[in-house]
Amino acid sequence: MEIINVKLLSKNSNMAYKPLRMDKINRIIEYHKKGYSKKKISRLLGLSKNTVKKYINQQIPKGVSDVPKASVYQSDSDRDQQLESQLPKIIMDLGKVGVTRYLLWEEYITLDSSGYSYSRFCRKVKAYKAKQDVTIKIDHKAAHRLSVDYAGKKIEWLNKKTGEIRYAEVLVCTLPYSGYTFAFAVESQKQEDFIYAINQALLYIEGLPLILQSDNLKSFVIKADRYEPTFNQLCIQLSTYYGIELEATRVGKPKDKASVERHVSIVYNKIYGPLRGQKFHSIDQINIAFRPLIEKMNRTLLQGKDHSRYDLYCSDEKPHLGELPSSLFEIQKLTKAKVQRNYHVILGEDKHQYSVPYTYVGKQTEIAYDRSNVQIYCGCERIAVHKRDYRKNGYSTLPIHMPEKHIKFLQTKGWDASYFKKQAQLIGENTLWAMMELLESKSLIEQTYNACLGLLHLNKKYSAQRLETACQKARTTHRVSYGIIKNILHNNMDKIAITPELFSIPKHDNIRGSNQYL
How confident is the model at residue 4, as a pLDDT? Predict the structure, then answer.
């Protein structure tokens, strides 16, 4: 191996240093160009710091530096300080779509080539994040707060009237101190449904907390603000009515409502899971199915403890809840509408039409409505009451509001064989026979409906007794049609007594039948 004979004189003596192998000298120069300190090079190569210094000074002329500026050596403390200044942005970027630790490390090492390796970079990021995630255990006060939030997953149900598949929202309400929890399904997250669900929760806990806390829902908060959120008017009315305070969680701070968030997950496991295969046809059915599972969830002993949520609620919270008023808070809305030519008024919020007596066509009305009922007034007179229907572009029509000709038209829409048989049976046995003959007279039963209707009309034109007699007379001929019955009645043939045959030939073997003359 090549040996370089370089004599390095000591400051205090003329003794020469032991020459180094060329490969070690090259390593010294290589490490120096990478930005390693003389101390680090001496440690890596097992040389004294002065030896390293002398070889560096001899190999690199004064005033010339082969070391790139970006590769200047940094101590661990320098690297820590530089990385820590970037860590807040690194943590923020990690939450963005498509951003990985490796991508961020590549960007970091490009700017600082003497920075940490990827594995050490990841450890630094993890340690910094752990410091930021330090939490404190919150001790909730009994009967102090009711936290509410909508579950992210909805419950499917089938509307039998329309055949439409709908999805119910589920509001989860929790008393954080005891964990006593209530879940209630509603049509939507609209204000009326939100307040209705809150009312049901207050009924369930049988009292009033001091504070109602919710996420920044549109049905709860108009403008989110960390220090002074703006609540919507209806929720302010509810707060005033019950004498409770409103509180909104901070935006992007899920730990403000950690208790209800945790119980949303519990509701998924304890309620959604057992009901996963059940089919529902109304929201009421959903809530009926919810109730026993809610009771079971609240009364089950907590893991590792000798009490349940219900036990804790009864002993520590229920005695301190405020008293509920005699009647629950109810939203009452007013709007105006003109009665259309179809004797219906439109409730604009739902885009649904409700009937009024047809004599009020063209008049101005006032509609008072809440979540359940719709009342329509003309002046001071209440002219119609309906159950509220949320079907868009639908109609709620009462027969008593319709003119007679419309009632008749509506009745025709319900024609079928059973309808005609039922009406004929009310008249008599012979009329029922005639009706059944008419229904079976054509291969397509719908083509007989006009004749059946005509037969029933004869009952009004003449009388039930005469129609029954006419059908009896037709029955003796074994032939029947609307025209035959009509002619019998028109010609008063039903008034002629039916005479029995005066003479009939007794049957015996000597009488030949018609088959003998073929």
Answer: 43
Question: Model pTM?
Answer: 0.48
Across-strand partners of 334?
A: 368
> What CA–CA distance (Å, rounded) separates 363 from 349?
20
Paired residues of 248 in beta bridges: 214
- The pLDDT, as a whole number, for residue 500 is 54
Kindly report, residue by residue over 377-427, the tens digit of the pLDDT. Answer: 998 899 999 998 888 888 888 888 888 876 666 566 566 778 888 889 999
Give residues with Cβ within 8 angstroms of 110, minimum separation 6.
none
DSSP state, residue 317: I
By CB neighbour count within 10 A (0-12 exposed, 13-18 middle, 19+ buried), where does 402 fall?
A: middle
Domain locations along the chain: 1-73, 76-132, 145-320, 333-403, 414-495
pLDDT of residue 363: 93
Into which CATH architecture does domain 1-73 fall?
Orthogonal Bundle (1.10)
Low-confidence ranges of the chain (pLDDT < 50): 1-16, 61-73, 135-137, 225, 227, 250, 252, 256, 502-503, 518
User: What superfamily in CATH does domain 145-320 come from?
Assistant: Ribonuclease H-like superfamily/Ribonuclease H (3.30.420.10)
The phi-psi region of residue 98 (left if phi > 0; otherwise alpha if psi is between -120 and 50; otherwise beta) is left
469-491: pLDDT as tens digits = 999 888 887 778 888 899 989 88
- Residue 291's H or E segment, with its range, is helix 283-299
Cα-Cα end-to-end distance for the chain: 139
Q: Is 13 exposed, middle or buried (0-12, 13-18, 19+ CB in 10 A)?
A: exposed
Which residue in the block uniquely carries the two structure tokens 């923020």?
92
498 within 8 A of 476, measured Cβ to Cβ: yes
Nearest to 395 by CA among 439, 351, 340: 351
Write down how long the chain is. 518
Q: What burial class does residue 291 get, using C-beta atoms within 10 Å of its C-beta: 0-12 exposed, 13-18 middle, 19+ buried? A: middle
